[in-house]
Amino acid sequence: MFLMILDAGVLRTQMLYRNDVFARHAASEKDVNKSYRHAGYRQYILIHHGRLGLGVRRPVPSCCTWAIRDTFPDPDGFYVPYEPSW
């Protein structure tokens, strides 16, 4: 399970697919870990909750959040907290 969330190769493939489908540009080199963290959170939600609609959010458990952050750290230690949809 963690392999699908923490493996850089799996997340890179997921990001390439998402960029291709939505015609987005790849992240710059300095934001690679940020992109991997975001992809890891998305993978967790997709595996556990399936595809969510627009504006629907689900929190990622703290243990998974910290595992993702430890694997792909921010150089400044700045992380955006979970923001529920109201």
SS-derived structural category: mainly alpha
> What is the global morphology?
globular
How far is the N terminus from the C terminus? Answer: 30 Å
Helix fraction, binned, reads 40-55%
* Beta-strand content estimate: under 5%
Low-pLDDT residue spans: none
- Got a strand count? 0
Mean pLDDT equals 83
Oligomer state equals single chain
**Radius of gyration, whole Å:** 13 Å
Work out the helix count: 4
Q: Report the biggest beta sheet as strand number plus sense, adding barrel if it closes.
A: none
Order of helices and strands: HHHH
Protein name: P2X purinoreceptor 7 intracellular domain-containing protein
InterPro entries: P2RX7_C
Domain P2X purinoreceptor 7 intracellular: 4-80
Organism: Dreissena polymorpha (Zebra mussel)
Provide an overview of this structure:
It is a single chain. The chain is an all-alpha fold. It has a domain at 2-61. 55% of the residues lie in helices and 0% in strands. It is built from 4 helices and no strands. The chain has helices at 2-6, 8-21, 32-49, 62-71. Helix 2 (8-21) crosses helix 3 (32-49) and helix 3 runs antiparallel to helix 4 (62-71). The longest helix is centred in the middle third of the chain and has 18 residues, at 32-49. The chain is globular. Residues 4-80 form the P2X purinoreceptor 7 intracellular domain. This is P2X purinoreceptor 7 intracellular domain-containing protein. InterPro entries: P2RX7_C. It comes from Dreissena polymorpha (Zebra mussel).
